[in-house]
Amino acid sequence: MSRVAIVTGGTRGIGEAISLALQELGYTVAANYAGNEEKAKAFTEKTGIAAFKWDVGDHQACLDGVAQVTDALGPVDIVVNNAGITRDGVLAKMSFDDWNEVMRINLGGCFNMSKATFGGMRERGWGRIVNIGSINGQAGQYGQVNYAAAKSGIHGFTKALAQEGAKSGITVNAIAPGYIDTDMVAAVPAAVLEKIVAKIPVGRLGQAHEIARGVAFLCSEDGGFVTGSTLSINGGQHMY
Ligand code: CAA
Asked: What average pLDDT does the segment 52-67 reach?
């Protein structure tokens, strides 16, 4: 029986590419989504990958969602915490709700999904968790105190949980994408985005499949000696 992977936010954008890359690796994939029913339906029809709806920021919904995936497909050995939102704005204009929603979904989602799956991975002695961070969690970004804080938190979360999983065959890693050609980045005002792209050494936005290949490696059997690491895939925009 093939291993089961959950990709949160797995029916669109970077998540869709990750779902496909893990399917190609031979895993049985469950793609979680939060709201866009139409896109999720089209995704399942196109790929044959089952889609499951729940809010990753809701702790109980994650426990229930993982139970539902387990019943349908089997125990979950791989989790890719990809779901995330932006609520950009300078601090002076950012509401508490803008702060809280980004923390609840982007960072809280990692906790909720790891909490729901880590025990089973430990019992079975094998697991892969990949958290999607961001260049903006590494370097900060004007107008994103909420998003940068949540993504930076993801990088710390990854290193802490990696230490807890290591003895049980569970690797925990992060990928820090730069600016990728997705709906999220398309929402950045054109004039601002133009200035950002001008600072990317390779001279273009990244493509979702370029992130997905990195995730696939970290989730593979061959990735077993890589844990607690962050793989930056950003066209050279931030090197350190
Ligand atoms: N550094 C310094 N100053 C900046 C700046 C920057 N990076 N960006 C904008 N400013 C300045 C502007 O020049 C402007 O100055 P003046 O008033 O003197 O002209 C001032 O700040 C206000 O800028 P805006 O007119 O843009 O302000 P706004 O309130 O309309 O919008 C904003 C602010 C929402 C933050 C907007 O600038 C924006 O959307 N920025 C892009 C943020 C971004 O990169 N988000 C990434 C989303 S994708 C993602 O997050 C995925 C990922 O992981 C990479």
From this structure: 98
| 133 neighbors 142 (Cβ within 8 angstroms) | no
Q: Is the CB of 195 inside a 6 Å radius of any atom of ligand 1?
A: no
Distance CA 61, CA 56 (A): 7
Ligand 1 in contact with 188 (CB < 6 A)? yes
Q: Are 189 and 145 in contact (CB under 8 A)?
A: no
Calculate how far, in angstroms, residue 188's C-alpha sits from the geometric centre of ligand 1. Answer: 9
Strand order in the sheet with 170-177: 50-53, 28-33, 4-7, 76-81, 127-132, 170-177, 230-233
pLDDT digits (tens, 9 = 90+) for 173-196: 999 999 999 999 999 999 999 999
Best CATH choice for the domain 4-233 from the list 3.40.50.720, 1.10.760.10, 3.30.1490.20, 3.90.660.10: 3.40.50.720
**What span, in angstroms and rounded, lies between the C-alpha atoms of 49 and 28?**
8
- Ligand 1 atom 54: the closest Cα is on which residue? 179
- Please, what is the average pLDDT of the chain? 97
Confidence class of residue 36 from pLDDT cuts 50, 70 and 90?
A: confident
